[in-house]
Specification:
- By secondary structure, the protein is of the alpha+beta class.
- The chain has a single domain, classed as Peptide deformylase (Peptide Deformylase), CATH 3.90.45.10.
- The chain has helices at 27-40, 72-77, 141-154, 165-179; strands at residues 5-6, 45-47, 57-61, 85-97, 101-107, 110-119, 122-128, 134-140, 189-190.
- A 5-stranded antiparallel beta sheet has the order 2-3-4-7-8, with helices on both faces. Strands 1-9 form a two-stranded parallel ribbon. Strands 5-6 form a two-stranded antiparallel sheet.
- The chain is globular.
Length: 193
């Protein structure tokens, strides 16, 4: 089932999400719905707070970023190609490293707003997979960026928190319009009103 995505302005997007335990009610269905919602919205990641669930869960499919990429120059620029598809439960960032780099990010909860965000080139994360098996992995490049973006959601942060105060002031009117429901998106949204 495709779920509505919370728009900027909802308090759930600013809450630190709660850990979950095995047997969490409806978890398998929620994960399936999150994948369906993410793909229907043309996303590469989706966090549970974005679908109105304040739990430490997010899904990532960075392989979407590499579709149609053929040229050697493009491939060489992204060492994490072909990307990864994973479910992250109760994730914790253990370390970030690598050369910080800027990339133009957007967010399904903040439609039609994109800004350059500087993030480290790699991230080491501990998490539980969908079978609640403990994992620790290091991710690089675009995949690291998508994970850090989604991790921000379960920590109550948004990508706009990583841009300068001046840029945020310039975006204030657009953000107010989103929070008031005066924006059109190609997917269902739930506004704060």
């Amino acid at each position: 089932m495709i779920l509505p995505i919370l728009a900027y302005g909802h308090s759930v997007l600013r809450r630190v999400a709660d850990d979950i335990a095995p047997g969490h009610p409806g978890l398998e269905a929620l994960i399936a719905d999150m994948w369906e919602t993410m793909y229907a919205s043309s996303g590469v990641g989706l966090a549970a707070p974005q679908v109105n669930r304040s739990i430490r869960l997010f899904v990532v499919d960075s392989t979407q970023m590499f579709k149609g990429m053929e040229e050697e120059d493009e491939v060489a620029a992204y060492p994490d190609r072909p990307g990864t598809k994973r479910v992250f439960i109760n994730a914790r960032v253990m370390a970030t490293a690598g050369t910080p780099w800027a990339f133009n990010e957007g967010c399904l909860s903040i439609p039609h707003v994109r800004e350059d965000v500087v993030r480290d080139g790699s991230v080491t994360v501990t998490y539980l997979d969908e079978s609640f098996q403990s994992q620790e992995e290091t991710f690089h490049g675009i995949t690291a960026r998508v994970i850090l973006h989604e991790y921000d959601h379960i920590e109550g942060r948004l990508f706009i928190d990583h841009i300068s105060l001046l840029k945020r002031k310039l975006l204030r009117k657009r953000l107010e319009e989103i929070s008031q429901g005066r924006v059109r998106a190609d997917y269902r949204m739930l506004f704060a009103r």
